Amino acid sequence: MNYESGQVSGEERLALPGYGDEGADRARTRRRWLIGGALALLALLGAWWMLGHKKAAAPAGAGVVAQLPSVTVTVPGRQVVDRQISATGSLAAKREMPVGVAGEGGLVRQVLVEPGQWVRAGQVLALVDRSVQVQTANSLAAQINVARSDLSIAQSELDRAQQLVDRGFISKADLQRKAATRDAAAARVNVAQATFAEARARNGRLDIRAPAAGLVLTRQVEPGQIVSSGSGVLFRMAMGGEMEMRALMAESDLAGLRPGARASVVPVGSNRQFAGTVWQVSPVIDPQSRQGIARIQLRYDPALRPGGFATATVVSGAATVPLLPESAVQSDRTGNYVYVVGADNRVQRRPVKIGTVNDTGVSIAQGLSGTEKVVLAAGAFLNPGQQVKPVLQANGNRT
């Protein structure tokens, strides 16, 4: 030990009492920890290896059946369902009557009807001022009286001439001239009467009248307005108040549709259903949209407003097809499909074409024969090829 410098060398430190024993204890402790950790790791590896060999030694399928998901399936069979066609379109008057000026027109003095009012055939809708025309008619009526007076005078002169001709005072030539004068006076009476009748007819056409009984839909004229034959439509009417829906349908749907088919119409914004009948099927198809129009006749109701939008369900015959609940039918970007469980209890995806959708279910137009086991629910959680445990649900409606 170097006492002079106050420092202790390595050898001298080991020579100190108790120092060497403490280092040895620390080294032994470290070795024990390392050995213990290695043994624990070997034990875990051994346990993992033993567990893997036990699973491999287990019989094939043991414990797997218990883990298969149970799914409810049904055999839908085939049922008779109505063939329904859904369509959209607009409401309109079945027979719309535009009403305008039939005569020479003039100043509208009074409008007598409002939209939504029922009118009879020939009823006056608006009055046009006729003060000038009335005076003209009165003048023509006076001319009739003048012509009748001339006829009366000519007839009297002819009668006197016939009495004098037998006595030789008047020649037969004079008698013929007086007869011609009488005939000309009679003709002037007829002309005056015809002219007066024409004036009366013109005056009658000044008033705007309903061409037939029906419902007034629109009014486009007001008192004080000057109207003429070029003024266009002043009133629009629905003949008899009959309404219709002009439903747009694809040409494939129109192919099997016939007049007389039952229909149910629901206007937009309303929950009411209006029963109707298809009375005309469009004979042409729009080459751009590939659609045609089916005209559905409806009874008048204030809720049916021409120009409004509506949806329709048309019943066109019946078909025998499989019927499934809505939960069984899935859809994605490729279309509609169902899951079918095969003989090996594996799930298969089956594309289908949907027909009618109503409260009883979804009819399958194409894709199923009705004898398959179709998954009723949980289809969204299945994958094609997945093995399942099918649970059959009875279907009392199968045919």
TrEMBL record:
Residue ranges crossing the lipid bilayer per the database entry: 33-51
Record-linked InterPro entries: Beta-barrel_RND_2, BSH_CzcB-like, RND_pump_MFP, YknX-like_C
GO CC list: efflux pump complex
Gene Ontology molecular function: any one: efflux transmembrane transporter activity
Pfam family, one: Beta-barrel_RND_2
Organism listed in the record: Sphingomonas aerophila
Name of the protein in question: RND family efflux transporter MFP subunit
SUPFAM superfamilies in the cross-refs: HlyD-like secretion proteins
Residues of the CzcB-like barrel-sandwich hybrid domain: 105-232
Alphabetic keyword roster: Membrane, Transmembrane, Transmembrane helix
Assigned protein family: Belongs to the membrane fusion protein (MFP) (TC 8.A.1) family.
Domain CusB-like beta-barrel: 247-315
Domain YknX-like C-terminal permuted SH3-like: 324-389
